[in-house]
């Protein structure tokens, strides 16, 4: 009986439940091939965002992710900077003066004050950094037209949607602002 149980344990499980591997669903493509305009005869297709909504969504996601990563790095840098600025003078330990609870409380308050100031400045710079980094690639990206009557114009550049000053407004222009544009 024990020998029979040992043989069953030694056998490998090849059942469907043990051998199937489940993968996450594929992420849909950000850009898809669309027919090229007649002026772009070098290739029959170009990669473009499906429409202005997918372009706007990708642009906002890019800015958001870069801002988030920048702020995380800035918080670490600000913590180190605040700690260095608020540490007690080196000579205090040489003269035999130890740290008192009052000294620790003062250092904590100093570090909080320094962190707040540093993070506030860093957040503003991170927004500017994210805008600058996303603007160039997205201004050159192609955006497909939802309907096109002829093969004359099938897409346009992202710079037509990004034609605003990002320092004044964080919102992208709506679809209404680009109606009637002629794309070369």
TrEMBL record:
Top-level taxonomy: Eukaryota, Viridiplantae, Streptophyta, Embryophyta, Tracheophyta
Organism this protein belongs to: Dillenia turbinata
Protein name: Uncharacterized protein
GO cellular component entries: plastid
């Amino acid at each position: 009986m024990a020998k029979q149980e040992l043989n069953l344990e030694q056998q490998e499980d090849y059942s469907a439940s043990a051998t199937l591997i489940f993968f996450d669903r594929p992420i849909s493509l950000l850009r898809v091939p669309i027919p090229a305009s007649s002026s772009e005869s070098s290739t029959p297709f170009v990669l473009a965002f499906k429409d202005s909504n997918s372009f706007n969504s990708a642009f906002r996601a890019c800015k958001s992710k870069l801002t988030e990563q920048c702020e995380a790095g800035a918080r670490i840098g600000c913590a180190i900077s605040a700690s260095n600025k608020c540490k007690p003078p080196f000579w205090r330990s040489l003269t035999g003066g130890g740290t008192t609870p009052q000294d620790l409380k003062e250092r904590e308050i100093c570090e909080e004050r320094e962190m707040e100031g540093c993070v506030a400045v860093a957040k503003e710079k991170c927004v500017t950094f994210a805008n600058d980094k996303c603007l160039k690639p997205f201004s050159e990206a192609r955006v497909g037209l939802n309907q096109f009557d002829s093969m004359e114009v099938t897409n346009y550049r992202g710079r037509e949607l990004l034609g605003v000053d990002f320092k004044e407004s964080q919102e992208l222009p709506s679809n209404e602002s680009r109606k009637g544009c002629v794309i070369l």
